[in-house]
Design goal:
It is built from four helices and four strands; from the N terminus they run βββαβααα. It is of the alpha+beta class and about 90 residues long. The chain folds into two domains: about 40 residues, no CATH class; about 50 residues, no CATH class. The protein has a two-stranded parallel sheet with strand order 1-4. Strands 2-3 form a two-stranded antiparallel ribbon. Strand 2 and strand 3 form a beta hairpin. The radius of gyration is 15 Å and the shape is elongated. The mean pLDDT is about 95.
Length: about 90
């Protein structure tokens, strides 16, 4: 699983205690065995990388406000054309 995080801040759960060294135990528990990638989906290069990942993915799960993916040009219809295996 690849988790895409916001540039400059990452996942909010990285800031939640308790900490083991400099890492949030809460974040580590929620994201065990996930790989993290920081992408600014407004950047054309980052968007191209995201679309390449979609072509090879089994599932895309997003957590934006409704309509955000469409505004970014990466809504369901676009992703479905790239990867017809994606669930409806």
């Amino acid at each position: 699983m690849i988790k895409i995080e916001v540039p400059g801040q990452g996942d909010d759960s990285r800031k939640y205690p308790p900490f083991i060294g400099s890492e949030s135990a809460y974040f580590m528990n929620l994201n065990r065995n996930k790989k993290s990638l920081v992408l600014n989906l407004k950047d054309p290069r980052a968007k191209a990388l995201f679309l390449d990942l979609v072509k090879r993915s089994d599932v895309v799960l997003e957590n934006f406000r409704p309509g955000t993916m469409e505004k970014l040009g990466i809504g369901h219809e676009t992703l479905k054309q790239l990867n017809p295996r994606q669930p409806i």
